[in-house]
Design goal:
The protein has 331 residues and is α/β, with parallel strands linked by helices. Helix content is 22%, strand content 27%. It contains 9 helices and 18 strands. A hairpin with a 7-residue loop joins strand 1 and strand 2 (14-17). Helix 4 (148-158) packs across helix 5 (173-184). It is globular, with a radius of gyration of 19 Å.
Length: 331
């Protein structure tokens, strides 16, 4: 099979011909149709996430068809279309798994980081951590739901219930999915972008945002919550400054630059700052149930498998509107 392989962080991916992997008893072998390109992939390539498996096939927003099943597989059969997310497996025995927090498992494995992922023509995945994809979504449109959608959805839910006004900092792949769900649920969305990024601001307005502006600006109203997808630590005090009493600021990224010191008065009045780590399978089931109801429309920019380095560079430099997706084989 063809695959784009990270041999050393900091270097471009290299195209390699590799043996097609064989599924273990609990695994399915997938013929990959599409794989999303995520900021987490960029953090791995750019040495911001330590100790990846090397050599590594990146990619954790996988849409594929089952072509072979391990002997203990009972959830899927040959021909089924499934999605593979970031969370690749958990131990089921640590204190986090026992209390329903599998996203914090001490021994979790992650697709495209500690396990080979989807920048390839085939991949294996544990059946227990795969999802059935709604039939209404074509492959490329479904791929961003598997991370931008899932992590974004968990971040949104962590912001609290009964929101009226919510800010989103960093209006990319995750934000454009979350914004649609929030609007569907009657929440007013305020979009914050890189200073001067008029295209992203126009994009947010087209999706229904009531206001869009630079991340350094104050919105016309105080916010009940703010979620941050941009990996910029200085946005935390900025978001606290425009968040109302009792509000939450939630960081949905796996990596962020250092948060600068800020005065206690920004946190006082029961404001909350928290992070989101990974996802649970329940998050996946909930998102894939609500997405067709909205319906969530994903904006994608397509690349071939061999254009993976170009996709990562476009993401790194803010040249991507919506989500990047490698189109690897036909629907």
């Amino acid at each position: 099979m063809g695959a784009m392989v990270l041999e050393n962080p900091g270097e471009p991916l290299r195209y390699r011909e590799l043996p097609v992997p064989r599924p273990a008893p609990e695994q399915v072998l997938l013929r990959i149709h599409a794989c999303g390109v995520c900021h987490t992939d960029l953090h791995i390539v750019d040495r911001e996430l330590p100790h990846p498996k090397l050599p590594l096939i990146l990619g954790h927003e996988i849409i594929g068809t089952v072509v072979r099943a391990g002997q203990r597989v009972d959830k899927f059969k040959t021909g089924d279309r499934v999605g593979v997310p970031w969370l690749g497996s958990t131990c089921g025995a640590c204190r986090y798994c026992r209390r329903g927090q599998e996203n914090l498992c001490d021994h979790a494995q992650f697709t495209g980081y500690t396990l080979d992922g989807g920048y390839a023509e085939y991949a294996v995945a544990d059946q227990r951590y795969c999802f059935t994809i709604p039939a209404s979504y074509r492959d490329a449109a479904a791929a961003p739901l598997l991370c931008a959608g899932l992590i974004g959805y968990r971040t949104y839910r962590m912001a609290g219930r009964n929101l009226e006004k919510m800010g989103i900092y960093g209006f990319g792949a995750a934000a454009h999915i979350v914004a649609q769900i929030a609007l569907f649920e009657g929440v007013q969305v305020y979009a914050f972008t890189r200073p001067g990024d008029r295209e992203a601001q126009d994009f947010a307005r087209r999706l229904g945002a009531v206001w869009a502006g630079d991340s350094t600006q104050s919105p016309p109203d105080q916010l009940d919550a703010a979620i941050i997808f941009a990996p910029v630590g200085s946005l935390v005090p900025e978001a606290l400054r425009v968040t109302a009493k009792g509000g939450s600021v939630v960081s949905g990224g796996i990596h962020m630059s250092d948060i600068p010191a800020f005065p206690y008065r920004l946190l006082w009045e029961e404001r909350v700052v928290r992070s989101v780590a990974n996802l649970t399978r329940q998050d996946g089931e909930e998102l894939l149930a609500i997405a067709p109801q909205v319906p969530v429309q994903t904006e994608v920019q397509l690349y071939t498998l061999k254009q993976a380095n170009q996709a990562l560079d476009d993401l790194r430099n803010g040249r991507m509107e919506g989500a990047g997706v490698l189109k690897i084989s036909p629907d």
